[in-house]
């Protein structure tokens, strides 16, 4: 196509997209039903993973729960069953590719095709900085379910972006992705977390935002929502100012309580 025509098409698409977004502000958002969906949640034995499992159970989803911690995942399964959900739990180490493949095969063969995957398993670890402890969160596992997806060691947001673009390029428009970006969540890992700027989140508000994101097909879910401004500041603030800002938002705490058992 002629370059001028392509540029005109681009401008028309841009205008249409803005108009569509504006109209959507006044139209009630459609929420999809989660009843009967087969939901696999990794890291379901504690924290965000457990709370998410309970939310899906309340919405009549069928659950497959994975965790490295047998006791934790069984406890979550029992709580979900009390809410009337069909649940199966597995001990899986999501940092081991072979374990993931073999557990995924078992799920596919014995239970069925997973329709929603919540890739949550991960660890929070702490580091000492100027004598104070600070939080570093990172994701351990990635979507080994999608055979041709190759963004293995990318950070979670970059991985999500790459995956979404790859799915779109493959024309797999039926697969929706939602990436959750919260600030520090109080999951009981540390005692008395505080921060000088911003807030410490409770699990419930994070999981409510996540569920809303999933049922309305949001690509990115920021908790608190104003966190998306951080993306903008990364582009416009000088590095030194950014570093100062980051220091103000780092959570501090009195002690690590922890729950690292795998039994
Ligand atoms: N808590 C936060 O402040 C925070 C902030 C941003 C992102 N996150 C991310 O959210 C996710 C959940 O965090 P959380 O605070 O609920 O953590 P959590 O420690 O409360 O729960 C994590 C669960 O994952 C399980 N797990 C850990 N390693 C595993 C492995 N190799 N295989 C299978 N299961 C494993 C643990 O046993 C535990 O049950 C993590 O990926 C974390 O990095 C947490």
SSE topology:
Blueprint: H1 3-24, E1 38-42, H2 47-58, E2 62-67, H3 70-82, E3 87-91, H4 97-110, E4 116-118, E5 122-129, E6 132-139, H5 156-169, E7 179-182, E8 185-186, E9 190-191, E10 201-202, H6 203-215, E11 220-223, H7 229-236, H8 239-249, E12 255-256
Parallel strand pairs: 1-2, 1-4, 2-3, 7-11, 8-10
Antiparallel strand pairs: 5-6, 9-12
Helix pairs in contact: 2-3, 2-6
Nicotinamide-adenine-dinucleotide (NAD) binds next to helix 2, strand 5 and strand 6.
Q: Would you tell me the structural class of the helices and strands?
A: alpha/beta
Strand order of the largest sheet: 3-2-1-4
The coarse silhouette is: globular
Bound molecules: nicotinamide-adenine-dinucleotide
The number of distinct β-strands equals: 12
**Share of helix, binned:** 40-55%
Distance between the termini: 62 Å
> Which regions contain 5 or more consecutive residues with pLDDT less than 50?
128-148, 150-154
Profile the largest sheet. Answer: 4 strands, parallel
H/E series, N to C?
Answer: HEHEHEHEEEHEEEEHEHHE
As a percent range, the share of strand residues is 15-25%
What's the CATH architecture name?
3-Layer(aba) Sandwich
Number of helices: 8
**Rg over C-alpha atoms, rounded to the nearest angstrom:** 20 Å
């Amino acid at each position: 196509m002629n370059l001028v025509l392509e540029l005109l098409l681009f401008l028309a698409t841009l205008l249409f997209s803005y108009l569509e977004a504006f109209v959507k502000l006044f139209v009630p958002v459609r929420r999809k039903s989660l009843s009967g969906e087969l939901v696999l949640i990794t890291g379901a034995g504690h924290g965000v993973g457990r709370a998410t499992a309970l939310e899906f159970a309340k919405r009549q989803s069928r659950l497959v729960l994975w965790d490295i911690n047998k006791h934790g995942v069984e406890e979550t399964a029992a709580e979900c069953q009390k809410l009337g959900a069909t649940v199966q739990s597995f001990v899986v180490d999501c940092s081991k590719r072979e374990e993931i493949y073999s557990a995924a095969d078992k799920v596919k063969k014995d239970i069925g095709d997973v329709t929603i995957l919540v890739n949550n398993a991960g660890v929070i670890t702490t580091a000492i900085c100027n004598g104070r402890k600070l939080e570093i969160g990172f994701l351990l596992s990635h979507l080994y379910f999608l055979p041709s997806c190759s963004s293995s060691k990318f950070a979670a947001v970059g991985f999500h972006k790459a995956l979404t673009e790859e799915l779109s390029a493959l024309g797999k428009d039926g697969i929706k992705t939602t990436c959750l970006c919260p600030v520090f969540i109080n999951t009981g890992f540390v005692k008395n977390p505080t921060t000088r700027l911003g807030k410490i989140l409770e699990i419930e508000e994070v999981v409510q935002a996540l569920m809303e994101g999933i049922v309305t097909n949001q690509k990115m879910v920021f908790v608190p929502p104003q966190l998306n401004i951080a993306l903008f500041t990364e582009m416009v603030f000088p590095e030194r100012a950014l570093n100062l800002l980051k220091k103000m938002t780092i959570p501090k705490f009195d002690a690590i309580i922890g729950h690292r058992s795998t039994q």
